[in-house]
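## retry 2 of 3
previous attempt timed out at serialization; input unchanged, resubmitting
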Amino acid sequence: MQDAKSLSRLDAIAQAELCARGEVTPDELREAALVRIDALDPLLRSIVTVSRERPRTLGEGPLRGVPFVVKDSTPWPDLRWSMGSRVFRANVARQQTQYGKRLAAAGLVCVGKSATAEFGLLHSTETLLEGVTHNPWDLSRSCGGSSGGSAAAVAAGLVPIAHANDGGGSIRTPASACGVLGFKPSRGRTVPASFGTSDFLDLTSDHCISRSVRDSALFLSITEDRSAGDPVGFVRDPIDRPLRIATWTRTLLADDVEPAVRRAYDDTIALLTELGHRVDGIAPPAIAGPPLADALFVVAGAAVAGVVDVVDRARGTPVQEHELEPFTWSLIEAFEARGAHALPIARNAFAEAARIYRDATREHDVVLTPTLATEIWQVGHLSPVLGREELIRRTARAVGYTPIQNVAGCPAMSVPLHVSERGLPIGMHFAAAAGADALLLRLAYQLEQARPWADRWPRYSIPTI
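## retry succeeded, writing output
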């Protein structure tokens, strides 16, 4: 058997291949992951619940025996399901989702739940329930959010792949922050990963954070809804034709990028041109940023107000002030103050923004922007105890590129192409038209071949300690 450290360097497919050849057993892969978690995660705090039990049954699919973690916004049977909130600190999931059934059938072994912002609301992973999840590149920095636990765990080599989801950048932001690949599928591409419905869930796509493109592509083929349109299948090859790529750097609120991000962006354009693609600088879509940002927080407020109402009715006593974070309460209060017309107004804002985005980009195959306008911020910059207006302002400044793809239902990805002079990862963001998931994955393969990142490990990771 290879040791836990050696195994940490392998992606999910490589670990599954070892298992298929009989060079390791599923139990050995699982135990190696637990050894890595015990060795490093007390420092990183990326995993909030560790599952040490051998699975009752093991699927015979293409990832048989591979350990992974599930974001704690999503249920997994017999594991705590807190959603990052004190109100659900003792909640245990009993049922499996359709999405989870696909993952289990593929042979993946859940070794724990990864940290998330409360209800996935913020682009940081620091909660009053679990504390701070640290970035393995720099412990003073945020790992992003809300899928920060998954991104940190994969970046540090604790697990080769991790479930994540994205309602406005929650896969792509932490992927950029932690120097890993974060792909968000098109709306409706995968089978349902939840039991409920809401406008907020309609914006959300489930997928994974990975170190390799092939892991992400295989994960999508496992979870896609094969009854909805043309299935993608397992995309295996790089793009073999020039693409028309539109690009801009201005965020939805008309902010521009920090110098380190600009250097990475300019280098990406040079790389794409070298690879034979046509890169066109265009005017950013003329989307009214403040109304769109407001609409996003309205639907978030509606979703958490609905959760509170369900809890109130289920237990017969109201949710108390100390059970939710201040920012969450502020979203509920702001939503309820708007009245009955708040959601229809938000839906209209989404429809208009999506129309403008599609019109501005329809002549191009792919859109390139930075993933974030800044290098990843310090811990506390997006703390949930800050005031609502300040948090929204800071979020809009840094995360001004990713939400429009959720609104428009498009696939998008953050690709770990760069590390700044300060030793911080900088992801570049690529998006395509709704349904063009395969095209984006093929571009990702090409970028991975041109600028390999597999051996780029953060300071606080299993291969480097």
